[in-house]
Write a structure and sequence with these properties.
- The chain is about 10% helix and about 35% strand.
- About 30% of the residues are buried.
- The protein contains 3 helices and 21 strands.
- By secondary structure, it is mostly beta strands.
- The strands form 5 sheets. A 6-stranded antiparallel beta barrel has the order 7-8-11-10-9-12. Strands 14-16-19-18-17-21 form a 6-stranded antiparallel β-barrel. The chain has a 4-stranded mixed β-sheet with strand order 3-2-1-4.
- The protein is elongated, with a radius of gyration of 26 Å.
Length: about 325
């Protein structure tokens, strides 16, 4: 008797868990895109998962950018998935799928990404520091905000009283994971200094702000505003294809939230706000095929947003990782 009761309860639980899916399959919901909608917002609205949109995009390659969809397009929510029904902006109205339930909702705001401003970048070989900190007051070697330092920037180097510089710490040279070419030195901003007394060949300065401890030997570059900022998504102006060359941590595997550096820059058409997809080739098990099948479509494993762009390299934040991401993984603006 007890076993029958347990069996009955199991059937009830299974029914309760699967009933919504059965209903969704029988009665899909159709939604017409409104001005301001994004796939990010639609994923949050219908799937309760705003991070689902890379999966959604990969299933709808006709959409050239997941945040560039048109008012009047129609999407269908069924079986836990969101599907774009028509990929081009219709001239007049939209058709409702047979047996579907039409849904209306408020316009979803565009997604913005916050960056701290101290994510670091690759300092390309063509760029040279203006100078460096050569000493701290009272011979201090660990320095912070409001401490006095001395630099090798003088009037002969363009130094002036009141002029500001960004303090950087240079790490090792980064080489391309595939070609072995030198891309640049990994650098991290530490803070800013302001010159207070300039002589012909050196100067005294005060540390105006600091993210981390500053030490003698750290580099000085033209001043950059490194405050926290919001990055809005921007559609790439041309097809982009490159790879992840390095990460801020130096680890071999990365995930959501990690900072990475790309072998793409403004010379390739990259701009801050560009959203790129991390893709991986699907290997064919030759033992399972007995005829030519061509090359399989790439697998989308994540997405990144560019936050800073140099001439040949750029800095990006991983905003979605479906699987482990590795150094050398390919990034593209429109995966096949």
């Amino acid at each position: 008797m007890k076993s029958r009761v347990i069996l009955l309860l199991s059937f009830i639980i299974i029914f309760l868990l699967t009933a919504p899916l059965i209903w969704a399959a029988e009665a899909p919901m159709v939604y017409v895109i409104q001005k301001g909608d994004t796939l990010w917002g639609l994923s949050a609205k219908f799937l309760n998962d705003p991070n689902y949109w890379p999966n959604l995009w990969s299933k709808n390659p006709q959409v050239t950018n997941p945040h560039f969809i048109y008012p009047g397009q129609t999407v269908r929510f069924a079986d836990g998935k969101l599907e774009i029904i028509n990929a081009t902006p219709p001239e007049t109205g939209t058709q409702k799928a047979a047996g579907a339930q039409t849904v209306t909702t408020e316009v979803v705001e565009e997604k913005l990404f916050s960056v701290r401003g101290n994510e670091g970048w690759l300092m390309e070989k063509e760029l040279e520091p203006i100078g460096r900190i050569i000493a701290g007051q009272h011979s201090n070697i660990i320095l912070g905000a409001d401490d006095t330092v001395f630099t090798d920037i003088g009037k002969s180097h363009g130094g002036e009283d009141g002029k500001k510089y960004t303090v950087l710490r240079k790490s090792r040279m980064i080489k391309h994971p595939n070609s072995g070419d030198e891309l640049g030195y990994k650098v991290f901003p530490l803070g800013t200094v302001q010159l207070t007394h300039v002589t012909e060949f050196n100067s005294r300065a005060i540390i105006a702000s600091s993210f981390k401890e500053i030490e003698p030997g750290d580099l000085l570059m033209p001043y950059q505003d490194l405050k926290r900022k919001e990055i809005s998504l921007k559609m790439a102006s041309r097809p982009l294809k490159g790879c992840i060359a390095e990460s801020a941590t130096g680890h071999e595997t990365f995930a959501t939230g990690d900072t990475v550096y790309l072998d793409l820059g403004t010379s390739n058409g990259v701009e801050p706000g560009n959203l790129l997809y991390i893709v991986r080739k699907v290997n064919i098990e030759k033992m399972l095929v007995d005829r030519y099948v061509g090359e399989l479509p790439n697998e989308v494993v994540g997405a990144i947003v560019v936050v800073e762009a140099g001439s040949k390299t750029s800095t990006a934040i991983i905003i979605k990782s479906i699987d482990a991401i590795f150094k050398g993984n390919e990034v593209v603006s429109a995966p096949r």
